User: Which sequence fits this backbone?
């Protein structure tokens, strides 16, 4: 479908931005976050005059007269109790950023190292986690590396110098500079200018981060350390080492390298970790780390012969259980007596499906039994509250077990084996 079908398009424009580029960017952005920007315009609002709004973006970008509006500050809680500050662009600005991002990405992605997994086509958090797990079996030591406030602290001039190493297209560089300089509107309504960083939450920001860290970290590390193994997902980095001395040496070199580019290692969140398992008998105080939300730690495992041994493997962290548990508590399932069992399952389906799909390969059955036992207890209370004939727990359990028999995949956690 031609999204510009109702618009008489002016062909004489100074910048090589086409209607097709804008239409493709819109479709890409629509798959992402739904939050509105500082203008309060939702996707529903934007699509009321879709062709006109897309035409406006194209016309301004193609003439060089597009200037991004401020981004909206949004704070989201992190599992450690702190908050992450995002800068949310308007929907129109997300589309404009996606035009440049898609164009520039085609030129640079093939130049990135294979160890970079974040926000790249054909790569994902799941592939990064799998490679991390494999390397923890091979290498006994890990540097769990955290760059302090990476997105907020990227030096703008150094970033632009790096981008210019990949493209000399003036329109691309012009718009990237404008996005880097766009002010932020804080939660109290005040506007603040930014002199460094690229807003976490912007469409173009992950690509800029990959361009910068490909030079600052990836290629440098591979050239500096022989046969080093690491995984990087945006600014989340794990480096695998053969021994403690090598880990200390690499970490010191990384600190100096980052300082050269006006970044620093977070002193509290960066750690050397010993991946303790069978046949690894050294004593070291730190034996676990988190990568992309998954906990890696020593755990008692059973081999094919039924014998137990200590392995270093992945589990779902307690912080993730807490976050999901808080969500289920807010849903108050036992009080939703206005819904039948199918509507109740639908209410939590999307959230649980997303959670299971992310963690299903990383140790769900090691730690989830009690958690989903508690969820089943909520369903028992719901059954007792909704159906007068199920006033005792035994009858409520029988009712739910019959539903399990008839529809074993009704609730997502039932599908994964956490049944009554």
Assistant:
């Amino acid at each position: 479908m031609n999204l510009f079908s109702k618009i008489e398009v002016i062909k004489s424009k100074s910048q090589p931005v086409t209607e097709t580029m804008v239409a493709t960017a819109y479709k890409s952005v629509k798959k992402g976050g739904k939050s509105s920007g500082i203008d309060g315009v939702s996707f529903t609002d934007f699509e009321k005059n879709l062709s006109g709004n897309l035409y406006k973006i194209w016309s301004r970008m193609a003439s060089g007269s597009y200037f991004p509006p401020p981004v909206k500050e949004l704070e989201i809680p992190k599992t450690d109790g702190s908050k992450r500050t995002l800068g949310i662009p308007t929907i129109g600005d997300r589309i404009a950023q996606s035009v440049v991002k898609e164009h520039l990405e085609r030129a640079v992605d093939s130049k990135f190292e294979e160890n970079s997994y974040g926000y790249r086509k054909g790569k994902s958090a799941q592939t990064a986690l799998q490679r991390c797990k494999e390397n923890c079996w091979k290498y006994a030591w890990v540097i769990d590396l955290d760059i302090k406030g990476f997105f907020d602290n990227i030096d703008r001039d150094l970033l632009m110098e790096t981008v210019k190493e990949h493209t000399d297209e003036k329109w691309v560089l012009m718009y990237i500079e404008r996005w880097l300089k766009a002010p932020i509107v804080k939660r109290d309504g005040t506007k603040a200018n930014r002199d460094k960083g690229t807003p976490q939450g912007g469409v173009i920001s992950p690509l800029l981060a990959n361009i910068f860290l490909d030079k600052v970290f990836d290629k440098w590390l591979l050239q500096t350390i022989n046969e080093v193994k690491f995984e990087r997902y945006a600014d989340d980095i794990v480096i695998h080492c053969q021994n403690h001395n090598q880990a200390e040496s690499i970490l010191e070199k990384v600190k100096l390298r980052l300082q050269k580019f006006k970044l620093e290692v977070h002193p509290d969140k960066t750690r050397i970790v010993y991946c303790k398992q069978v046949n690894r008998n050294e004593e070291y105080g730190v034996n676990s780390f988190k990568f992309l939300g998954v906990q890696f730690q020593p755990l008692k495992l059973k081999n094919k012969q039924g014998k137990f041994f200590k392995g270093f493997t992945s589990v779902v962290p307690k912080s993730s259980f807490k976050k999901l548990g808080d969500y289920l508590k807010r849903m108050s399932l036992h009080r939703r007596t206005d819904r039948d069992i199918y509507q109740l399952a639908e209410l939590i389906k999307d959230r649980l499906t997303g959670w299971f799909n992310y963690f299903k390969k990383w140790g769900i059955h090691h730690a989830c039994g009690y958690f989903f036992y508690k969820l089943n207890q909520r369903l028992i209370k719901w059954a007792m509250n909704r159906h007068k004939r199920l006033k005792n727990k035994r009858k409520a359990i029988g009712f739910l077990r019959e539903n399990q028999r008839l529809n074993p995949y009704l609730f997502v956690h039932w599908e994964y084996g956490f049944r009554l």
